[in-house]
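ok so for the tutorial part 2 we go from a plain amino acid sequence to predicted C-alpha coordinates. step 1 is just haveing the sequence, like this:
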Amino acid sequence: QQQQQQQQNFMKQPVVHEKLPPMLKEHQRDVQNLVANGQRGPNNMGQVLNDNVARQKHPLLSQPGGGGDTAIDNSNNNVQAQQYAHAEQVIAVNGNNNDAVNQVRGDNSQRKKVNLALVVCGERTDEVVAFYNSIKLFSRSDNVDVMLYVWADEAALDFLGRMFVGPFDNGMLKVTVILSPVQFPKDDAHNVKWRTLFKECASQRLFLPTLLPTVDRIIYFDVDAFLFTSVIELWNIFDNFNSEHTSTMVAESTSKDTWYPRFSEHPFYGDFGLNSGVMHMHLERMRTKKTVNQLTSIAVEYKDHIVWGDQDILNIYFSKHPEELLEMPCNWNYRPDLCMYGIKCPLKDMPRYDETRGPPSLDIVGSVKVIHGNRRVFHNDETTKTAKINVQPMFRSLFALMTSLSSADLTDERIDQFTIALDDSLPCNAVAYEFAASLKQAIKS
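step 2 — the prediction. this is what the C-alpha coordinates look like for a chain of 445 residues:
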Protein backbone atom coordinates (compact mmCIF):
# COMPACT_ATOMS: atom_id res chain seq x y z
CA GLN A 1 0.00 0.00 0.00
CA GLN A 2 2.85 2.36 0.83
CA GLN A 3 4.48 1.65 -2.54
CA GLN A 4 1.20 2.29 -4.37
CA GLN A 5 0.74 5.57 -2.49
CA GLN A 6 4.28 6.65 -3.39
CA GLN A 7 3.60 5.76 -7.03
CA GLN A 8 0.38 7.82 -7.05
CA ASN A 9 2.16 10.75 -5.44
CA PHE A 10 4.97 10.50 -7.97
CA MET A 11 2.59 10.58 -10.93
CA LYS A 12 0.77 13.62 -9.50
CA GLN A 13 3.83 15.71 -8.74
CA PRO A 14 5.53 17.38 -11.70
CA VAL A 15 9.24 16.66 -11.29
CA VAL A 16 11.57 18.43 -13.70
CA HIS A 17 15.28 17.78 -14.14
CA GLU A 18 16.62 21.32 -14.15
CA LYS A 19 19.75 20.42 -16.13
CA LEU A 20 17.75 19.16 -19.10
CA PRO A 21 17.43 21.20 -22.31
CA PRO A 22 14.38 23.51 -22.33
CA MET A 23 12.47 21.33 -24.83
CA LEU A 24 12.78 18.27 -22.59
CA LYS A 25 11.84 20.23 -19.46
CA GLU A 26 8.69 21.43 -21.20
CA HIS A 27 7.94 17.93 -22.48
CA GLN A 28 8.35 16.39 -19.03
CA ARG A 29 6.00 18.97 -17.49
CA ASP A 30 3.44 18.18 -20.20
CA VAL A 31 3.70 14.46 -19.43
CA GLN A 32 3.25 14.98 -15.71
CA ASN A 33 0.35 17.40 -16.14
CA LEU A 34 -1.49 15.09 -18.53
CA VAL A 35 -1.19 12.18 -16.13
CA ALA A 36 -2.08 14.22 -13.06
CA ASN A 37 -5.24 15.49 -14.79
CA GLY A 38 -6.19 12.05 -16.13
CA GLN A 39 -6.18 13.40 -19.69
CA ARG A 40 -5.75 11.30 -22.80
CA GLY A 41 -3.91 12.03 -25.97
CA PRO A 42 -0.52 11.47 -27.58
CA ASN A 43 2.34 13.58 -26.30
CA ASN A 44 5.02 14.65 -28.74
CA MET A 45 6.69 11.27 -28.30
CA GLY A 46 3.57 9.64 -29.78
CA GLN A 47 2.40 7.74 -26.70
CA VAL A 48 -1.00 7.60 -25.03
CA LEU A 49 -1.20 9.03 -21.53
CA ASN A 50 -4.30 8.20 -19.54
CA ASP A 51 -5.43 6.98 -16.15
CA ASN A 52 -3.89 3.57 -16.83
CA VAL A 53 -0.41 5.11 -16.76
CA ALA A 54 -0.67 5.74 -13.04
CA ARG A 55 -1.02 2.00 -12.52
CA GLN A 56 2.23 1.14 -14.27
CA LYS A 57 5.29 0.15 -12.29
CA HIS A 58 8.11 2.66 -12.19
CA PRO A 59 10.85 2.85 -13.18
CA LEU A 60 10.67 0.62 -16.25
CA LEU A 61 13.33 -1.87 -15.29
CA SER A 62 13.91 -5.35 -16.69
CA GLN A 63 16.18 -8.28 -16.07
CA PRO A 64 18.73 -8.80 -18.84
CA GLY A 65 17.07 -10.51 -21.76
CA GLY A 66 13.62 -10.19 -20.20
CA GLY A 67 10.58 -8.37 -21.41
CA GLY A 68 10.59 -5.71 -18.74
CA ASP A 69 7.89 -4.54 -16.39
CA THR A 70 6.26 -2.30 -18.97
CA ALA A 71 2.81 -3.80 -19.42
CA ILE A 72 -0.16 -1.43 -19.17
CA ASP A 73 -3.33 -2.43 -17.32
CA ASN A 74 -5.63 -3.97 -19.93
CA SER A 75 -8.89 -3.28 -18.06
CA ASN A 76 -9.56 -0.26 -20.21
CA ASN A 77 -8.94 -1.26 -23.82
CA ASN A 78 -8.61 1.93 -25.79
CA VAL A 79 -7.49 2.95 -29.25
CA GLN A 80 -6.94 6.61 -29.93
CA ALA A 81 -5.86 8.14 -33.19
CA GLN A 82 -4.81 11.64 -34.12
CA GLN A 83 -4.32 13.07 -37.58
CA TYR A 84 -0.83 14.52 -37.94
CA ALA A 85 0.48 16.80 -40.67
CA HIS A 86 1.40 15.29 -44.04
CA ALA A 87 -1.55 12.88 -43.77
CA GLU A 88 0.25 10.76 -41.20
CA GLN A 89 -2.14 8.80 -38.98
CA VAL A 90 -0.61 7.70 -35.71
CA ILE A 91 -2.63 5.15 -33.80
CA ALA A 92 -1.55 4.67 -30.19
CA VAL A 93 -2.70 1.44 -28.63
CA ASN A 94 -3.45 0.87 -24.98
CA GLY A 95 -4.52 -2.69 -24.17
CA ASN A 96 -5.32 -5.72 -26.31
CA ASN A 97 -8.08 -4.34 -28.52
CA ASN A 98 -6.10 -4.21 -31.76
CA ASP A 99 -8.92 -4.23 -34.35
CA ALA A 100 -8.26 -0.65 -35.40
CA VAL A 101 -4.54 -1.25 -35.60
CA ASN A 102 -4.96 -4.39 -37.65
CA GLN A 103 -6.80 -2.37 -40.28
CA VAL A 104 -3.56 -0.59 -41.09
CA ARG A 105 -0.98 -3.12 -39.92
CA GLY A 106 0.81 -5.05 -42.63
CA ASP A 107 0.82 -8.77 -43.23
CA ASN A 108 2.03 -10.39 -39.99
CA SER A 109 3.75 -13.16 -41.96
CA GLN A 110 5.98 -10.50 -43.51
CA ARG A 111 6.44 -8.47 -40.34
CA LYS A 112 10.04 -7.83 -39.31
CA LYS A 113 11.33 -8.00 -35.75
CA VAL A 114 14.28 -5.73 -35.07
CA ASN A 115 16.44 -5.41 -31.94
CA LEU A 116 18.36 -2.20 -31.22
CA ALA A 117 20.61 -1.29 -28.27
CA LEU A 118 21.75 1.94 -26.60
CA VAL A 119 23.79 2.66 -23.47
CA VAL A 120 23.41 6.00 -21.68
CA CYS A 121 25.09 7.34 -18.57
CA GLY A 122 25.24 10.93 -17.40
CA GLU A 123 23.24 13.85 -18.76
CA ARG A 124 22.70 12.45 -22.26
CA THR A 125 19.03 11.55 -22.23
CA ASP A 126 18.31 14.14 -24.92
CA GLU A 127 20.38 11.98 -27.28
CA VAL A 128 18.08 9.04 -26.52
CA VAL A 129 15.14 11.25 -27.51
CA ALA A 130 16.79 12.10 -30.83
CA PHE A 131 17.45 8.41 -31.53
CA TYR A 132 13.86 7.46 -30.66
CA ASN A 133 12.48 10.23 -32.87
CA SER A 134 14.66 9.08 -35.75
CA ILE A 135 13.13 5.60 -35.58
CA LYS A 136 9.64 7.07 -35.76
CA LEU A 137 10.50 9.37 -38.65
CA PHE A 138 12.36 6.99 -40.95
CA SER A 139 10.43 3.80 -40.15
CA ARG A 140 6.89 5.05 -39.54
CA SER A 141 5.58 3.17 -42.60
CA ASP A 142 7.60 0.00 -41.97
CA ASN A 143 5.77 -3.19 -41.03
CA VAL A 144 8.09 -3.85 -38.08
CA ASP A 145 8.30 -4.48 -34.34
CA VAL A 146 11.29 -2.70 -32.79
CA MET A 147 12.63 -3.73 -29.39
CA LEU A 148 14.84 -0.90 -28.14
CA TYR A 149 17.04 -2.11 -25.26
CA VAL A 150 18.51 0.74 -23.21
CA TRP A 151 21.06 0.28 -20.42
CA ALA A 152 21.40 3.35 -18.22
CA ASP A 153 22.69 4.64 -14.92
CA GLU A 154 20.34 5.55 -12.08
CA ALA A 155 19.79 9.17 -13.08
CA ALA A 156 19.10 8.34 -16.72
CA LEU A 157 16.77 5.47 -15.74
CA ASP A 158 14.78 7.86 -13.59
CA PHE A 159 14.22 10.29 -16.45
CA LEU A 160 13.66 7.69 -19.16
CA GLY A 161 11.23 5.84 -16.92
CA ARG A 162 9.11 8.98 -16.90
CA MET A 163 9.53 9.54 -20.62
CA PHE A 164 8.66 6.09 -21.96
CA VAL A 165 5.30 5.25 -20.42
CA GLY A 166 4.25 2.70 -23.02
CA PRO A 167 5.01 1.42 -26.53
CA PHE A 168 4.63 3.57 -29.61
CA ASP A 169 2.33 1.88 -32.14
CA ASN A 170 0.94 3.53 -35.26
CA GLY A 171 -0.41 0.32 -36.75
CA MET A 172 2.68 -0.38 -38.84
CA LEU A 173 5.66 0.58 -36.69
CA LYS A 174 5.69 -0.55 -33.07
CA VAL A 175 8.53 0.51 -30.75
CA THR A 176 8.89 -1.00 -27.28
CA VAL A 177 11.55 0.38 -24.96
CA ILE A 178 13.12 -1.93 -22.35
CA LEU A 179 15.18 -0.16 -19.70
CA SER A 180 17.83 -1.93 -17.62
CA PRO A 181 20.50 -0.74 -15.19
CA VAL A 182 24.07 -0.93 -16.46
CA GLN A 183 25.86 -4.09 -15.36
CA PHE A 184 29.57 -4.83 -15.42
CA PRO A 185 31.89 -7.47 -13.96
CA LYS A 186 33.53 -6.38 -10.73
CA ASP A 187 36.54 -4.19 -11.48
CA ASP A 188 38.82 -6.24 -9.28
CA ALA A 189 38.00 -9.43 -11.16
CA HIS A 190 40.52 -8.55 -13.91
CA ASN A 191 41.84 -5.24 -12.57
CA VAL A 192 39.93 -3.54 -15.41
CA LYS A 193 37.66 -0.62 -14.57
CA TRP A 194 34.95 -1.50 -17.09
CA ARG A 195 32.51 1.30 -16.36
CA THR A 196 35.07 4.06 -16.90
CA LEU A 197 37.21 2.31 -19.48
CA PHE A 198 36.57 5.19 -21.89
CA LYS A 199 33.30 7.10 -22.05
CA GLU A 200 31.29 6.17 -19.00
CA CYS A 201 29.42 2.88 -19.46
CA ALA A 202 30.33 2.58 -23.18
CA SER A 203 31.98 -0.81 -22.65
CA GLN A 204 28.57 -2.26 -21.75
CA ARG A 205 28.27 -3.32 -25.39
CA LEU A 206 31.04 -5.89 -24.94
CA PHE A 207 28.77 -7.88 -22.64
CA LEU A 208 25.56 -7.88 -24.71
CA PRO A 209 25.92 -11.57 -25.70
CA THR A 210 25.61 -12.54 -22.03
CA LEU A 211 23.18 -9.78 -21.00
CA LEU A 212 20.71 -10.89 -23.69
CA PRO A 213 20.95 -14.69 -23.63
CA THR A 214 17.74 -15.24 -25.62
CA VAL A 215 18.36 -12.59 -28.30
CA ASP A 216 20.13 -13.83 -31.43
CA ARG A 217 20.95 -10.53 -33.19
CA ILE A 218 21.02 -6.84 -32.31
CA ILE A 219 22.32 -3.53 -33.69
CA TYR A 220 24.26 -1.45 -31.16
CA PHE A 221 24.52 2.36 -31.44
CA ASP A 222 26.53 4.84 -29.43
CA VAL A 223 24.03 7.11 -27.69
CA ASP A 224 25.26 10.11 -29.73
CA ALA A 225 23.96 8.56 -32.95
CA PHE A 226 20.60 8.50 -34.67
CA LEU A 227 19.12 6.90 -37.76
CA PHE A 228 18.88 8.49 -41.17
CA THR A 229 17.26 5.50 -42.82
CA SER A 230 14.71 2.78 -42.13
CA VAL A 231 15.42 0.25 -39.38
CA ILE A 232 14.57 -2.45 -41.90
CA GLU A 233 17.31 -1.29 -44.25
CA LEU A 234 19.75 -1.46 -41.35
CA TRP A 235 18.46 -4.86 -40.20
CA ASN A 236 18.69 -6.36 -43.67
CA ILE A 237 22.47 -6.04 -43.51
CA PHE A 238 22.38 -9.25 -41.49
CA ASP A 239 21.29 -10.96 -44.72
CA ASN A 240 24.77 -10.24 -46.10
CA PHE A 241 26.51 -12.13 -43.29
CA ASN A 242 28.36 -15.27 -44.28
CA SER A 243 28.70 -18.21 -41.89
CA GLU A 244 31.67 -16.60 -40.08
CA HIS A 245 30.53 -13.01 -39.64
CA THR A 246 29.66 -11.86 -36.14
CA SER A 247 29.72 -8.05 -36.55
CA THR A 248 29.79 -5.02 -38.80
CA MET A 249 31.66 -1.76 -38.31
CA VAL A 250 33.02 1.01 -40.51
CA ALA A 251 36.64 2.11 -40.84
CA GLU A 252 37.79 4.82 -38.44
CA SER A 253 38.97 6.84 -41.43
CA THR A 254 39.78 6.62 -45.11
CA SER A 255 43.25 8.11 -44.59
CA LYS A 256 46.42 6.86 -42.91
CA ASP A 257 46.94 10.33 -41.44
CA THR A 258 44.74 9.36 -38.49
CA TRP A 259 45.02 7.88 -35.00
CA TYR A 260 45.43 4.14 -35.46
CA PRO A 261 48.10 4.16 -38.20
CA ARG A 262 50.03 6.98 -36.48
CA PHE A 263 49.76 6.41 -32.74
CA SER A 264 48.27 3.05 -31.83
CA GLU A 265 50.42 0.86 -29.56
CA HIS A 266 48.31 -2.23 -30.14
CA PRO A 267 47.09 -4.23 -33.17
CA PHE A 268 44.11 -2.82 -35.07
CA TYR A 269 41.90 -3.93 -37.93
CA GLY A 270 42.89 -3.24 -41.54
CA ASP A 271 44.74 -0.11 -42.62
CA PHE A 272 42.79 2.49 -40.64
CA GLY A 273 41.23 0.76 -37.65
CA LEU A 274 37.51 0.56 -36.87
CA ASN A 275 34.96 2.92 -35.37
CA SER A 276 32.57 1.06 -33.08
CA GLY A 277 29.76 3.65 -32.93
CA VAL A 278 27.41 1.47 -35.00
CA MET A 279 27.74 -2.28 -34.75
CA HIS A 280 25.63 -5.18 -35.97
CA MET A 281 26.13 -8.02 -33.49
CA HIS A 282 25.26 -11.66 -34.10
CA LEU A 283 24.90 -12.51 -30.42
CA GLU A 284 24.24 -16.21 -30.94
CA ARG A 285 27.50 -16.71 -32.81
CA MET A 286 29.36 -14.60 -30.26
CA ARG A 287 28.11 -16.85 -27.49
CA THR A 288 29.22 -19.92 -29.45
CA LYS A 289 32.67 -18.42 -30.01
CA LYS A 290 32.87 -17.22 -26.38
CA THR A 291 33.65 -13.75 -27.67
CA VAL A 292 33.05 -12.05 -24.33
CA ASN A 293 35.77 -14.17 -22.70
CA GLN A 294 38.18 -13.29 -25.48
CA LEU A 295 37.39 -9.56 -25.21
CA THR A 296 37.96 -9.71 -21.48
CA SER A 297 41.33 -11.38 -21.99
CA ILE A 298 42.32 -8.68 -24.49
CA ALA A 299 41.38 -5.94 -22.01
CA VAL A 300 43.65 -7.50 -19.40
CA GLU A 301 46.56 -8.09 -21.78
CA TYR A 302 46.52 -4.63 -23.37
CA LYS A 303 45.20 -2.52 -20.51
CA ASP A 304 48.32 -0.31 -20.47
CA HIS A 305 48.03 0.43 -24.20
CA ILE A 306 44.29 1.08 -24.56
CA VAL A 307 43.31 4.70 -25.23
CA TRP A 308 39.84 4.49 -26.77
CA GLY A 309 38.46 1.87 -24.41
CA ASP A 310 36.11 -0.73 -25.83
CA GLN A 311 36.77 0.45 -29.40
CA ASP A 312 40.45 -0.44 -29.00
CA ILE A 313 39.51 -3.84 -27.56
CA LEU A 314 37.29 -4.53 -30.58
CA ASN A 315 40.04 -3.42 -32.96
CA ILE A 316 42.48 -5.84 -31.36
CA TYR A 317 39.92 -8.64 -31.48
CA PHE A 318 39.08 -8.18 -35.17
CA SER A 319 42.75 -7.81 -36.09
CA LYS A 320 43.05 -11.38 -34.82
CA HIS A 321 39.71 -12.53 -36.33
CA PRO A 322 39.21 -10.47 -39.51
CA GLU A 323 37.01 -13.18 -41.03
CA GLU A 324 34.32 -12.34 -38.46
CA LEU A 325 33.86 -8.73 -39.58
CA LEU A 326 31.73 -7.38 -42.42
CA GLU A 327 33.14 -3.91 -43.01
CA MET A 328 30.55 -1.33 -44.03
CA PRO A 329 31.03 1.88 -46.06
CA CYS A 330 31.49 5.16 -44.17
CA ASN A 331 27.96 6.44 -44.87
CA TRP A 332 26.62 3.84 -42.41
CA ASN A 333 28.35 5.68 -39.54
CA TYR A 334 28.78 9.28 -40.64
CA ARG A 335 30.88 11.30 -38.18
CA PRO A 336 32.32 14.83 -38.17
CA ASP A 337 35.78 13.28 -38.64
CA LEU A 338 34.70 12.42 -42.18
CA CYS A 339 34.17 16.05 -43.16
CA MET A 340 35.79 18.41 -40.64
CA TYR A 341 39.31 18.01 -42.11
CA GLY A 342 37.99 17.88 -45.66
CA ILE A 343 35.57 15.47 -47.26
CA LYS A 344 36.81 11.94 -46.49
CA CYS A 345 33.49 10.22 -47.18
CA PRO A 346 32.24 11.54 -50.54
CA LEU A 347 28.58 10.64 -50.41
CA LYS A 348 28.10 10.71 -54.16
CA ASP A 349 30.54 7.79 -54.43
CA MET A 350 29.18 5.77 -51.52
CA PRO A 351 27.39 2.47 -52.11
CA ARG A 352 23.81 2.09 -50.98
CA TYR A 353 22.26 -1.10 -49.71
CA ASP A 354 19.35 -2.08 -51.95
CA GLU A 355 17.51 -5.22 -50.81
CA THR A 356 16.12 -5.74 -54.31
CA ARG A 357 19.65 -6.04 -55.70
CA GLY A 358 21.48 -7.77 -52.90
CA PRO A 359 24.74 -6.52 -51.37
CA PRO A 360 25.90 -2.89 -51.53
CA SER A 361 26.85 -1.90 -55.06
CA LEU A 362 28.98 1.04 -56.13
CA ASP A 363 26.86 1.93 -59.13
CA ILE A 364 24.03 3.31 -56.93
CA VAL A 365 24.37 6.82 -55.52
CA GLY A 366 24.62 6.60 -51.74
CA SER A 367 23.27 8.65 -48.86
CA VAL A 368 23.89 8.91 -45.15
CA LYS A 369 22.38 6.03 -43.15
CA VAL A 370 23.40 6.85 -39.56
CA ILE A 371 24.52 10.19 -38.08
CA HIS A 372 27.12 9.82 -35.31
CA GLY A 373 27.86 13.02 -33.39
CA ASN A 374 31.09 12.06 -31.64
CA ARG A 375 33.36 14.78 -30.22
CA ARG A 376 30.13 16.10 -28.61
CA VAL A 377 29.39 18.07 -31.78
CA PHE A 378 25.66 17.84 -31.02
CA HIS A 379 26.26 20.10 -28.01
CA ASN A 380 29.41 22.16 -28.56
CA ASP A 381 29.08 25.85 -29.43
CA GLU A 382 31.32 28.91 -29.33
CA THR A 383 31.08 29.03 -25.51
CA THR A 384 32.20 25.41 -25.01
CA LYS A 385 35.71 24.79 -23.73
CA THR A 386 36.88 22.58 -26.57
CA ALA A 387 39.04 22.74 -29.66
CA LYS A 388 37.52 25.03 -32.29
CA ILE A 389 37.41 22.16 -34.77
CA ASN A 390 34.93 20.37 -32.47
CA VAL A 391 32.38 23.17 -32.89
CA GLN A 392 30.35 22.03 -35.90
CA PRO A 393 27.12 24.07 -36.30
CA MET A 394 25.68 21.73 -38.91
CA PHE A 395 25.65 18.73 -36.57
CA ARG A 396 24.37 20.82 -33.67
CA SER A 397 21.52 22.26 -35.77
CA LEU A 398 20.57 18.83 -37.11
CA PHE A 399 20.51 17.40 -33.58
CA ALA A 400 18.28 20.24 -32.37
CA LEU A 401 15.92 19.53 -35.24
CA MET A 402 15.79 15.80 -34.48
CA THR A 403 15.40 16.28 -30.72
CA SER A 404 12.39 18.55 -31.02
CA LEU A 405 10.89 16.62 -33.86
CA SER A 406 7.18 15.97 -34.15
CA SER A 407 5.26 15.09 -37.27
CA ALA A 408 3.44 18.42 -37.33
CA ASP A 409 6.71 20.35 -37.09
CA LEU A 410 8.63 18.74 -39.91
CA THR A 411 8.05 20.69 -43.10
CA ASP A 412 10.32 21.37 -46.07
CA GLU A 413 10.57 24.99 -44.91
CA ARG A 414 11.74 24.02 -41.44
CA ILE A 415 14.29 21.59 -42.82
CA ASP A 416 15.66 24.34 -45.05
CA GLN A 417 16.09 26.59 -42.02
CA PHE A 418 18.94 24.55 -40.59
CA THR A 419 21.00 25.02 -43.78
CA ILE A 420 20.39 28.72 -44.38
CA ALA A 421 22.52 30.15 -41.56
CA LEU A 422 25.46 27.80 -41.98
CA ASP A 423 28.87 29.13 -42.95
CA ASP A 424 29.86 27.45 -46.21
CA SER A 425 33.54 27.85 -45.33
CA LEU A 426 33.29 24.89 -42.92
CA PRO A 427 33.58 21.61 -44.87
CA CYS A 428 30.96 19.78 -42.78
CA ASN A 429 28.36 22.43 -43.51
CA ALA A 430 28.46 21.51 -47.18
CA VAL A 431 27.06 18.11 -46.23
CA ALA A 432 23.97 19.77 -44.71
CA TYR A 433 22.28 19.95 -48.09
CA GLU A 434 22.63 16.19 -48.52
CA PHE A 435 21.10 15.68 -45.07
CA ALA A 436 18.24 18.07 -45.84
CA ALA A 437 17.44 16.19 -49.05
CA SER A 438 17.32 12.90 -47.14
CA LEU A 439 14.92 14.36 -44.56
CA LYS A 440 12.61 15.70 -47.23
CA GLN A 441 12.60 12.33 -48.96
CA ALA A 442 11.68 10.67 -45.66
CA ILE A 443 8.63 12.93 -45.37
CA LYS A 444 7.42 12.13 -48.87
CA SER A 445 8.10 8.39 -48.76
